[in-house]
Amino acid sequence: MDMMTLWHLTGWEFAVLAFAALLVGFSKTAVSGANTVSLALFAAVLPARASTGVLLPILIAGDVLAVLTYRRHAHWPTLWRLFPAVAAGVVVGTFFLMWADDEAVGTSIGAILLLMAAVTVWRRRAADRAAQAAVDAEGDPGERSGRSGPEEITSRAGRIKARSYGVLGGFTTMVANAGGPVMSLYLLSAGFRKLGFLGTSAFFFLIVNTSKVPFSVGLGLIDAESLLLDAALVLFVVPGALLGKWAVSRINQRLFERLVIAATVVGGVQLLVR
Fold first, then answer.
1. pLDDT tens per residue, range 140-153
2. What is the CA radius of gyration of the chain?
């Protein structure tokens, strides 16, 4: 693999990767989307293609911790609805990586990050408008019913929506490990509240990221050198996950999302101009 090994990293470079690994753990148990910052940090320190292979086992470690924390809140009908389309997106992403060079992957990651930042801003504003409309009409319907899971989407439009998000999520997660914002948008638009959102996304990304391992090995993105670096970084995922579990009910969500969006934009621009 064309990458720096653990022994070639400077102290500052390792510190940046360690902080990125901590953010992965935090995002998996608290605020989905924080790992887009991790993606930008990994791609800034390591070659773009190699960074996706190093980051994948770190993400899987975070997924395992998230499943252990929120396993009781997963909504499996939604997962089964998404998986076929996600599989198609992963295959498309794999073919893209077969011919894309480091510059193309870096540009793609940067563009995906900027797109996901825009999607996140749009999602938040749409959710704010919808929540305000619900309060103006009859109060918070989620609070009245106690609903913590999604509304069923069985219409033709709902199936098309699930397939579209699934393909885009599979492609972005394979090419750049950046499927989180896509799936976050889908789960929120489907009506998930906090615990259902975290439990469903935990199982979703554990299954999807694990399924990507053979493709990444075949493409040479994961090898002995990358796994050695992962072994040193995975230790930082655990405190991040514990911090996320503690903060999930205390964090100022709006401020944190603004920080994540700003960092994502900076990272995306940096990758595009590098």
1. 544 444 444 555 55
2. 18
